[in-house]
Amino acid sequence: MARKRSEEEILEEAEPVSVVILNNIVNITEDLAETVLDLAKLQRKRPQEFKGLLENLAKAKKEGPESLIGVLPEAVAKQVMSAVMSLMMTVGSMKQAMKGGSTTSSMPFDPQKMNPDDLEKVGKALMEESAKLDKVIHEYEKDLLSAKKGKK
Amino acid sequence: MKKKKLEDTTPISIVFLNNILNIIEDISNSLFEITEIQTKRPFEYSEFIQALKSKNQSNILKMLPDEIAKQVMSSFFGIIAEFAYVKQKSANPEQLTSEELNKIANALKKEIKNIRKLIKNYKKNIKTNKKDKKIVKVNWD
User: Fold this and answer.
1) What ipTM was predicted for this assembly?
2) Domain residue spans in chain A?
């Protein structure tokens, strides 16, 4: 038997598409604000390291993404590279599918022609790579903590 | 407390990466919501995309409920003014001080709070209207 829909779910159906999208934009903007706050904190508390990272970022801008990876710990950097490649492939295959399978077609990318399955595929790929990276970072932080405890 | 100690040892690049991951997670959640809307309300979705394509800001705003649209416009100008002021002070983003970064972040947070409040009220109103509709009974006498 189908699950009875809650009041909240029914309400969501009445919500205009524009409000749903705006809510999503607000969520992303909140993450951006948190990032800026983190940046401000790091800049104040660890100015030397912060300056070093900015220099590396400027170098990466000149030399390409490979040098950007150099600023990350090795295990994390490898996962980032693998995630970027995999995401590029997913988006690439989606774009190709939209051009009717042709890689040479000059047809522009049209978001209206994206079907829900394609969007879901990209969403899932992002989630999957994000989960993998989260795991690697978690392991790395655990190792850092153990190393710190070991020193004591 | 434990978290604070860890943050002190975590390289800045990892802190950045974590922030990027949070943003990516929100983007993928947005994609899932768009997928759902596209499947369940294709006509409304198509109309929304057309408004976005028109590149006319007023068309996009017309899609939003009036009160929310006004707050979005006001927030947009508020944030632009804040950015312009900070940009004027430091032409090179690398020279942004932590106080200036804090100022931008706080301006973003303030506007987000305003918009969230309006969306919440708007949703509450939809809910009340829905409830009102439910209790309307036709008197046949």
Assistant:
1) 0.77
2) 72-102+113-152
